[in-house]
Amino acid sequence: MKRIQIADFDRRMPPLELREMDDYYEAVLVSNYDESYPSTQVRTIQLADIYVNLVMTEKGAHLVSALFLKPVEVSDIVAWMQLYTISFATADATGYYVEQADEILEIVLYQGNPIVIATRGTDRLYYETEGAIEMRRESSEVIGKKPLLYLNGEARFGVPHLEFNPSQDEIHVNGTFLFADYMDTYQGHVGFFRKTDPDLPVVVLVGTAIIEMELTENPDGSRVLVIEQPYDEA
After folding, report:
1. What spatial distance separates the first Cα and last Cα of the chain, rounded to whole Å?
2. Cis status, amide bond into 198, omega within 30 of 0
3. Which residue, 80, 153, 231, 233, shows the most beta carbons closer than 10 Å to its own?
């Protein structure tokens, strides 16, 4: 890992460290955060054309770094940070605000907390979060780990075992109704099985596209699993 000091490119910039990884650069906003928190507490969220890392603690979430995916030059990152500022859930009695800003460009929410990109300026800009998009899942692809599927917005890198009651539960795969007793892994893929023949799945999802799953429970205890997997591009 190569470490670069942004102040070496522009003395007007704060003393921020830029770390070069294989697939991205990381602008560290909180020094040594990765030594203070386990990796499982860090969430990576997309915001416009960059990503941010949030550390999740019992006291709440904290913005610790920004990620810039390659191909990108260090000079481009320095220029970006000269023009823009990132704010996370900063508020006072009046409401949420961005300090030393000129114009707010984008607002997203993660677990109800606003993450904002704004152009740099001299004002304190207050803003509302109504209408902002809630980011339900982290972007694990950034760190080179592509999830196999998302279950209710949570990234899964393996196949979770799910049991179903075919007499009351429903499974919908890309609009097709499926009868199965359980879901489990089959040769590294998502497979659906019947208990009468556990060695051979009735359906296997073999595409490389990320699978989206939504599992809901009805008041009567029955469940509905809706699965969408885009077709692989030719």
Report:
1. 36
2. no
3. 80
Sign of CA dihedral 67, 70, 71, 73: positive
Q: How many angstroms separate the CA atoms of 6 and 78, rounded? A: 7
- Phi, psi for 111 (deg, rounded to 5): 55, 40
Distance CA 141, CA 130 (A): 28
* Greatest distance between any 2 Cα atoms in the chain: 70
Span 84-139, pLDDT tens digits: 999 999 999 999 999 999 999 999 999 899 999 999 999 999 999 998 888 876 66
Q: Which of 85, 17, 75, 19 is closest to 47 using CA atoms?
A: 85
List pLDDT tens digits, range 150-199. Answer: 888 777 778 889 999 999 999 999 989 999 999 999 988 999 999 998 88
Q: Tokens 């040769």 sit at which residue?
A: 187
Neighbour-count burial for 105-141, b at 16+ CB within 10 Å, e otherwise = eebbbbeebbbbbbeeeeeebebebeebeebebbbbb
**What is the CA 43 to chain-centroid distance, rounded?**
7
Structure tokens at 105: 């460009």
